[in-house]
Amino acid sequence: MFGLFACATPALAHQALLSLQHRAQEGIALATAHTKLEFKRSCGLLSCAPKDFFTPAPHALGQVLGAHHDFYANNHLAIAFCGNLHHSTTPAKFIAKALDRAQATSLEAKLKEITPTLKGAYAFLLLTPNRLIAVRDPFGYRPLFVGALRSGFALASETYTLQALGVTDIQEIPPATLYTKTGAMLLARPTPRPCVFEAIYFSHPSSVVFGQSVYAMRTKLGQALAQEHPLQADFVVPIPNSGTLAALAYAKELGLDFAPLVSLNPYVGRSFIESTQESRQAKARQKFSLVQEDLKGKDIILIDDSLVRGTTSKVVVQMLKEAGAGRVYLLLSAAPILSPCLWGIDIPAKNELLSAQGGEAAYIGADSVGFLSLNALKAAINAPFCQDCLIPKNKDSHV
């Protein structure tokens, strides 16, 4: 999600949504404000939006839509929401109704009144004809950043987006904070535990999360993987794109040949963030192809960022085996995912998590599967993060 205050143009709004497209691909939403709010929504990728989707306005609020993203707008208020509220399936609308019921007079005071009732993980932006406000939960599960742009300011889920807009003085909005053009207001005692998947998977390599470069963190993950799983093979092959940096670092650490033999179709979106297993499987088959290379009898170390359902890994391993590869070893630059997530990442019920069931190699068709240990993951990230999905639970709940 992004917000532009006193600096919105059609070109900037388009660029902001384009730079966020890797985070969700089911649709886009945009609210613009002058004397009143105007709202538009389009299904699919940004390229599918109608030509008149972007119109001039001094303020704008936009969002890419997918699982755990929600957008609500009426004539005087728009809310872009990322995360999950445990007591609502339409969190943006829930917040709008809670504001209507609040006893306080100013919008800022209303938000301060209702935020203790919001149970879950969230970052959201709120736009009126003359205000743009950001709110982040006490744990900082979902990322949110702000910076100066022309005579106004801009907000976004990633620093990469703000960089693409030409924003200066980029800063992270702290957890438990309400942010307006006049400054920041603390809403509660912050207890930072951001989602580790921002470092592992979601964020663009050019972004900064946990106060660190995503590029540098993924490189550290690959180095740690080489230390824990020093295998030998003919090629180290990444599953693009989120496995590429770890694979490159792994190969360099062990002196092995890095070979990006799996090609990614840039016009097919991420399979993980699809809403159904059928669409995930179809997209995984569509988006990968194998570079024509003599793989007969060649042993492969295949590296990806993480393993959830095993959909992508299974497809790629099958492609390599069909091309004549010998042994295929799958390594993951994250710890095993053992529990579902209730904080706004589409990590499903326990019975859908491959590592919670065991038998990963047999299901995927790999000769072996290895994970980065949780301790090594902690050392590489070197910052507090939420570990709930990496720790086995008896129930599909963390609350």
Automatic annotation (TrEMBL):
It comes from the Bacteria. GO terms for molecular function: amidophosphoribosyltransferase activity. Coiled coil: none annotated. SUPFAM superfamilies: N-terminal nucleophile aminohydrolases (Ntn hydrolases) (SSF56235), PRTase-like (SSF53271). InterPro entries: GATase_2_dom, Ntn_hydrolases_N, PRTase-like, PRTase_dom. Keywords: Glutamine amidotransferase, Glycosyltransferase, Transferase. Pfam families: GATase_7, Pribosyltran. It is an enzyme of class 2 (transferase). Its EC number is 2.4.2.14. Residues 1-184 form the Glutamine amidotransferase type-2 domain. This is Amidophosphoribosyltransferase. It comes from Helicobacter ailurogastricus.
